[in-house]
C-alpha cells in the first residue's frame, strides 16, 4: 500500500523559481520524459511545467547554469499523467488508482458495523472521504443498501430533515434493526451550507430517540494493501504510460492514461483538467443536475439506481406479468446482490416476482415462492447463494419445468449463474418448438468465478475470487520470503478458463501462470525453470508459479512440482498449494456488489420492455432470438446478446468463449516477470476526447 518512493505536496513547485530548479535537476540527469502519478493538482502543475519548459531552459542558458548544447539536447519535455486519488474525482477516467482499495476499506467497516448495529438496534452515521466528490459515498451507499445518502453533487431538497426522519422511522417500524446513513465529507445543503455528521446524529436522536453513533472513517481509507483491481489497473496504466512516452512526438499533447471499460485509453490532459474544473464550477453555481452529468455516465447511473432501490415506492399499477428468478451452477459472490435488486425493481414495475430454490432442479420440483420487497433486505453483502444453487441442466427434467412454468404462469425467467445458466437457457430456447410454454422472455446474468460465459467481459463473482486468490498468494509469498530459496506452485480454479490464474498472477507478481488458452510446450517449461534458477542468484530468493486446474492434461500440478523439484535441486525447494474452494467463498467485493446490483436492475428493465412488446390479447408469446439474452459488460457498455447467436462463438467441450479479451494481459504478465519479450504485439491505447 501507500507509495514506496514517497509523495508530497510541494509549495515551491507552484512558483516559477521552483519550476526553474526542477528543470535544472532534470536536465542535469538528462531526463526529458516524466510520468506523473497524482491528483488533478499534480497533473495541472505538470502541464504548466511542460508549457514553460522552453522558457525555463532559455533562462538557465542565460544564467549560465547550462550550455546551449545541453538545452538543445533536452529541448522537449514529454509528460504523461496517471491519476492516483482515492476520491475518483478526475473526469475522463472510469476509476482512479486507489479508489477500489478505498471502497474495500469502507465496505469492511460497514460490514463490521452492520453486525454490531443489528445486535444493538442502532443507527449509524458514517462519514467517508472524497473531498468535493461524492463517489466513495455513493458507491458504498449503493453497495451497502444505506437508508440515506448525502453527496455534494446532489444536495437534499429543503425540508429533508422531516423526510429522512420519517423514512428512518418507517424502516424501523417494519422490523429493521439497522439504519445506516452515509455522508460524504463535502456534503452540503441546497444553500451550500455544510451538513455535518454530528448534525445528522443530533437530528435522529432528538426527533426519533434512536440510539445513534457517528463513525468518521478518516485515513483508514487511504491505507491497507491494494485490491486486485487496483493492482491490475495500475500495472496496466504504468505500462501504457511508458508506451505513450516512447511514442510521443513534438505535436502530441500531454496525455493522461486512463481506463475505459477494460481498455487503456489516452486522453488530453488539459481536457480532463478542464471538465474536472467544470464540475466544481457547476456545483458552486448550484447547477447540480449538470454536475452529476459532468461526473460521467457511471456516476449518474449509480445515483439513479441508488434512488430506485433505497426506498420502496408503490408501483403505479399492478402489471399482468410474473417473473421467476433462480441461481444455477456453482456459488459466486454477488449472486445475492443481483437477486435483491432484480426482486425490488420487479416489484417497482408492478410484476409478481417469484424466487426458485436450487436452480432448474427446484423449478422442476416446484420449489417456487412469491417474494416481497423486505424479503431480500440484508442480502447485498452476503456471499454464496441465498436461494441455493445446483448444476442440473433443464434437459434432464424438461417436462416438469414446463409444467411449473404453466402452473405459476411464469412469463419471464431471470437466470443468475455460470456456464450452466447460459447452456440451460439455450436448451430451453431450443425446446420452444416442442413446448409453447417456453416462448417467454429469458435473461442470463453471468455469475461465476471462472469468468467463462460468452457475451460478457466480466462475470459476477470473478473480482471476489481474484481477491481471495490474491490474498492467499500474498501470504504464501510472505512465508517464502522467510524461508528463502523456495518456489511455490499454486493451483487455481476456473475450469479450462485461465482468467483467474492470469489476473491473480498479475496481482501478485507471479513468475509464470500456466493456462489452457496459451499452450506451453516443453521448452517453455525449461525456460521457466532456468528463469527461476537465475532469480535465486539475485536478492529476491522466492518464486511463485500459478497453474490453472485444467491447463494441461499431462502437465499436472504434481508433474510441475516434480519437474521444478528435480531441476532446482540444490538451488531451491518446492511446495504445492491448491487454493480450492476458498476462491468461491467470502463476502462479495464492492465491485461485485455494485455490478450485481446494476445487472439485476438492467436485466429486469430489459425484460419488462420485451414483455410489453410481445404481449398480445392477454398473453405473452416470444419466439424470436432476441427474446432470450445474456446481459454483460462489453468494453464499456452493458449489452444484451441472444443465446442463439452466442452459441456460434462458444467452445462447449471446454466451456469457453472462443475469443477472450484478457489474453492480451499475458504479455504484461511476462514482461513484469522479467522475461525478454517483444513489444510488437502490444496494443497501444488510442487518443480519445473527454
Describe this structure in words.
It catalyses: beta-D-fructose 6-phosphate + ATP = beta-D-fructose 1,6-bisphosphate + ADP + H(+). The protein is an alpha/beta fold and 690 residues long. The protein folds into four domains: 11-95 and 227-277, Rossmann fold (3-Layer(aba) Sandwich), CATH 3.40.50; 99-222, 3-Layer(aba) Sandwich (Rossmann fold); 317-452 and 588-651, Rossmann fold; 462-584, Phosphofructokinase domain (Rossmann fold), CATH 3.40.50. The chain has 22 helices and 24 strands. The chain has a seven-stranded mixed β-sheet, with helices on both faces. A hairpin with a 2-residue loop joins β7 (255-260) and β8. α5 crosses α20 (590-613), α8 (228-247) packs across α17 and α9 runs antiparallel to α10. The protein starts with 15 loop residues before the first helix and ends with a strand. The mean pLDDT is 92.
